[in-house]
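ingest -> validate -> predict -> emit
validate: passed (alphabet ok, no gaps, 233 aa)
predict: started
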Amino acid sequence: MRKKIIAVIPAKGNSRAIPKKNIVKILGKPLIYYTIKEAKKSKLIDDLIVSTDSKEISKISKKYGAKVPFIRPKYLSTDFMQSLPVVKHALLFMEKLNKRKYDYVVMLQPTCPLRSCIDIDSSLKRLINSKFKSITSIVNVGGSHPYRMKVLKNNRLYNFIDRGFEDMRARQKLRKIYIRNGAIYACTRDTLIKKNTLVSRKNLPHIMPQERSVNIDTISDLFAAEYYLKKQK
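emit:
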């Protein structure tokens, strides 16, 4: 039986570092457009919704084909609200609205405009065809390897990971280390509702290249995303 999958794009109206970040223009299109566009190409997603507290974002999202069945409640729209309760609220709202339960939920953050529909569907297929409960997209840290990181104590420089020596090896010779890139978080319904998490203990990796892993948090990230989007075209 085909699995029912809901995709949730959490898109808050206000942002600190970049005003109205989720709809800031990149190559003439609002940031959220790129996530909606690729999610709509998915062959596995049944319902694509945007959870937002902004009427402006709601209007833009509908224009590009996403559903906005509600305006997010204020208690879920504070500056430090995490994604988990937002996604859970969206899932339960849609289940009540449609009178059916979903099997899987995938969170697609609008701040990751370079993730493709292939990333979405290949990660969902891997999860569905496995015994794992969730899958998370990651990227190699490259030159920002933990062995190269430093901390300051009393105005003195120390290795973040103290190994008793300074590791001067080329990054190609260092052990591969990955970090979440924010592009894809998918899990079973029970993982989200019963375990109260998007990332289970039995978690699969979806490895993505740097050129599809920009997660926009600063102005420099915007420039990087624009560069890679131009390159894709």
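The radius of gyration is 19 Å.
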